[in-house]
Design goal:
The chain contains six helices and seven strands; from the N terminus they run H-E-H-H-E-E-E-H-E-H-E-H-E. By secondary structure, the chain is an alpha+beta fold. The chain has a single domain, classed as 3-Layer(aba) Sandwich (Aminopeptidase), CATH 3.40.630. The N terminus is likely disordered. The structure holds coenzyme A. The site of coenzyme A (COA) has 20 residues, from strand 4, helix 4 and helix 5.
Length: 180
């Protein structure tokens, strides 16, 4: 039985329908900053950094809105020396919108764009203890029958002076779009 506060709550299908995906815009900077702060354990960056994500990297980033509220964001970019790769920097879904496939939908939105036509791989880094992130990316790869590989990219001691956990690189692909 639903509790009183669950009555009238949105179903998963409602939530999917209500959420609009779009490219971020410069005015989104402070809202992105707030969302990231609410999505532990993500590292917080400056509002200025979020503004750059929303402007210079808008073609490879995505914002998700529900009732005018920012509930999801992925920042990404194509590394200058790896033009066939979409590097996914951070994925954030507000607690109220989790568990309905939004993170995977945002990832799919990014690789379906014209700007991603040459992308063959998704790269991301994940700390070993972030089970939600591993689960989400592996599920995304599994659903598309895409191979994955993993190695340590940034070592806690060598790259973070022991102040941050290791960051493991997870590579998904190649997508082999020609075979699709
Ligand atoms: C990780 C995060 C983005 C997932 O968002 P989401 O919209 O709920 O994810 P989706 O619904 O698209 O995908 C969920 C998949 O991940 C898996 N998953 C989600 N949370 C999980 C958890 N805590 N442990 C293990 N797997 C988990 C689900 O099993 C699901 O796979 P399935 O569809 O095969 O069952 C969200 O929990 C979040 O913002 N967390 C805080 C910030 C963070 O850690 N971001 C990732 C680092 S970049």
């Amino acid at each position: 039985m639903p509790s009183d506060d669950q009555k009238g709550a949105s179903t998963p299908a409602d939530i999917k329908k209500e959420i609009i995906l779009r490219k971020p815009e410069s005015q989104d900077g402070p809202r992105v900053h707030k969302l990231i702060a609410e999505c532990k354990p993500l590292d917080e960056n400056s509002v200025y950094c979020n503004l750059l994500q929303c402007t210079h990297f808008a073609d490879t980033s995505v914002a998700a809105e529900m009732d005018g509220e920012l509930v999801g964001f992925i920042s990404g970019y194509i590394p200058p020396k790896q033009q066939n790769t979409l590097f996914v920097w951070q994925v954030a879904v507000h607690a109220k919108a989790r568990g309905h496939g939004l993170a995977k939908r945002m990832l799919a939105n990014l690789i379906e764009r014209d700007e991603s036509r040459d992308v063959q791989f998704i790269d991301t880094t994940i700390t070993p203890d972030n089970e939600a992130s591993w689960g989400m990316f592996r599920s995304f790869a599994y659903e598309r029958r895409m191979p994955t590989e993993e190695f340590i990219l940034f070592d806690s001691r060598i790259h973070f002076a022991g102040q941050h956990n290791d960051e493991h690189l997870l590579r998904i692909g190649p997508f082999n779009r020609d075979d699709a």
